[in-house]
Amino acid sequence: MSTAEARHAQQPERLNWRIRLRRDRTLIIMTLPTVVLLLVFNYVPLFGIVTAFQYYDPLIGVWHSDWAGLDQFKRLLTDPIFWGALKNTLYLSFVQLILFFPIPIALALLLNTVISERIRNFFQSIVYLPHFFSWVLTITIFQQMLGGAGILNHFLRTHDIGTWDIMTDPNTFALLVTSQAIWKEAGWGIIVFLAALAAINTEMYEAAAVDGAGRWRRMWHITLPGLRGVIVLMLVLRLGNALSVGFEQFLIQRASVGHDAADVLDTFSFYYGIATNDYSYGAAAGLFKSVISLLLIWGANKLAHAFGEDGLYRK
Is pTM, for the whole model, over 0.85? Predict the structure, then answer.
């Protein structure tokens, strides 16, 4: 047998699309509802982007609204309220990236050290639970704890100490919303990291322990390198979503701290676009945010490739 024939014999036989469709029909049926939801709620609305280039009037529709070109974007870039919302968005994203992003990693590492499976499952359930609370309930809980009539101020008044209503203080608003996000979502964020930890070969830990490596050395030389690819991937996704710091959370608390502290790009699009029936202006703000987010995720992915990581996809 020649070398070419041997190489051809080693290659797996390629199946045509009908055979693959028949083979994978169960998986396709399982993913079909998700694909339909993505098409309906994520891709079909993309056609509405055209309203950002119009003087859109919902009474006459997209086809008959006057064309505006780039007028909405020129108006946007000369609006000081928009720049204030962009500044708040970037600042809040930076605070949450520094304070929130490491917490799920630390929790996953902590839970991974718990030997008892029953105790580990109990604590996982506890930290998962807040994810299923609505933002209304989450903010209500914080109001009961940190508000003017909350537990903290009741304790301060009891001991003749000056009260501090954190829920209405614009100077600490960034720390407040970050702490709310940590309490609500950090437990849910550990799922990916726990899955990555489960994929690390336990024989490596055993070999390191035999060689005299302690717990911290095993974590530094085995656990963290094993998590590095997932950490980079989640960081890329986080940077791509940096301008979407939250809508409902800020919408609920905007009145208590003022728009100067709580306005972000999402609330700006709502208040100065939808709420005022200036739909084209809101669409222009949303499109601006989407383009910047796309550039951020592209740049972060390029940086990941430069450091030898896969990022969103293998280079």
Answer: no
